[in-house]
Task: inverse folding
């Protein structure tokens, strides 16, 4: 839907966010994004907010295209993540993210560390994170560190409860 708004809204208790995430792997490496303008260093999955009226698959294709410049083909739904956290401004969040894998292609595998996303003017860039050597790195979602992203056979469900 052209000009549709993101599925995110304020409530009396905080903010709700509906997001898709994309699992792009190359062996044991996963493609993640980082905004160097953030006060602390962390990496997050490729993806973004679902737009009102947009299917999840369409959101995946759009977000991958926006962040990498590459058109992808969706493979399967891999995980649902319920995330309850407080952002750096003290706003409580209730976020639902649905993660998908996509079919690998040579263009995706050739993305170089430091490639700017569509948020390039803000400095957001892509980086391959080696999951076997990521100790000390903060990555979101954290379950990326604990499961084998290359062999997800059924949709997983994760809950992160940082606030009550």
Result:
């Amino acid at each position: 839907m052209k000009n549709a708004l993101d599925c995110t809204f304020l409530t009396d208790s905080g903010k709700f966010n509906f997001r898709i995430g994309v699992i792009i792997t190359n062996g044991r490496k996963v493609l993640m994004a980082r905004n160097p303008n953030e006060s602390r260093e962390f990496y997050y999955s490729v993806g973004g907010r679902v737009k009102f009226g947009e299917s999840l698959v369409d959101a995946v294709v759009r977000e991958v295209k926006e962040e990498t410049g590459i058109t992808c083909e969706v493979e399967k739904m891999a995980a649902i993540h319920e995330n309850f956290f407080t952002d750096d401004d003290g706003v409580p969040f209730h976020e639902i993210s649905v993660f998908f894998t996509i079919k690998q292609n040579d263009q995706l595998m050739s993305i170089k560390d430091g490639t700017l996303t569509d948020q390039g003017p803000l400095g957001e860039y892509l980086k391959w994170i080696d999951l076997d050597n990521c100790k000390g790195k903060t990555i979101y979602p954290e379950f990326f560190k604990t499961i084998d992203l290359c062999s997800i056979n059924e949709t997983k469900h994760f809950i992160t409860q940082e606030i009550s």
